[in-house]
């Protein structure tokens, strides 16, 4: 068994990796009239955390279309009901939204910067979606200062984690890169080889690291 280290760049952690909190999150509390909507769109756990700033009775009856199992669990943990779950990518939500009537009124609780344009695609076809920015993420000091070994296995959970890492670091030829999702993969430089997780989960990435790179 090799002694290569696994580094996880995410706002979540895993016991089998050196977990580097890649982003600092700032929450906002814009004025929202939840009574105007039929359903929420949630694409991250941070969106659910942002909801805790509001009176639960105002939003809890609204079902949520969630991008992944993880984001769905975050809304269920608040006591909310999940309407449907996408395939882990924002782009996959287009077909989910189109399966409902155009009259359905959606509220997308989003970050200041987003990687997918699924809302614009749906709105261009007449679907009723409002957006509310409830948080933003900035590169953390931890990801700026981390010292990574030249033969490490690096796991990135989001496009932001890739971009923040590359602001202060470069990849070596010996390092192995694993990403959660195609959207994250797009944030990598074109010449970088990478492994794509089978599922949009950190555990899936850890499994790839152990099975492909640590034997």
Automatic annotation (TrEMBL):
The keyword Lyase applies. Keywords: Lyase. InterPro entries: 4pyrrol_syn_uPrphyn_synt_sf, 4pyrrol_synth_uPrphyn_synth. It is an enzyme of class 4 (lyase). Gene3D superfamilies: 3.40.50.10090. Residues 31-188 form the Tetrapyrrole biosynthesis uroporphyrinogen III synthase domain. GO terms for molecular function: uroporphyrinogen-III synthase activity. Its EC number is 4.2.1.75. One of its GO terms (biological process) is tetrapyrrole biosynthetic process. The keyword ATP-binding does not apply. This is Uroporphyrinogen-III synthase. It comes from hydrothermal vent metagenome.
